[in-house]
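Why does residue order matter? Because the sequence determines the fold. Keep that principle in mind as you read this record.
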Amino acid sequence: MNNKFKRHQKVRLLRAPDPEYVEYHEELEEVEEKPTIEKGMLGKVNLILQNGQYHIEILGNDGNILAYCSVHEDDLEAT
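Structure:
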C-alpha cells in the first residue's frame, strides 16, 4: 500500500473532520468550551491506519496538541 504521507509529517486539513470522531487531548477534556476543529488547521501524522486513513494530531497555534482524529488522505495536504 502506497501512502501519500509519512509518520510525523506536518499536514493541513482540507476539510473539517466530523465532530463525532474528534477526540480532544486529555488536558482539554475538562474544559467547557473546546476549540472547534476546522478546515485549514495544522496537524501531524500520528499513525497510518489499516484502512488507509491517517490518525492526526491537531495542533494549536502554540504547537500544543488540541485533539486527535482520523482523516482520509484526500482531506490532507503536506505543509
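The CA atoms of residues 18 and 37 lie 9 Å apart.
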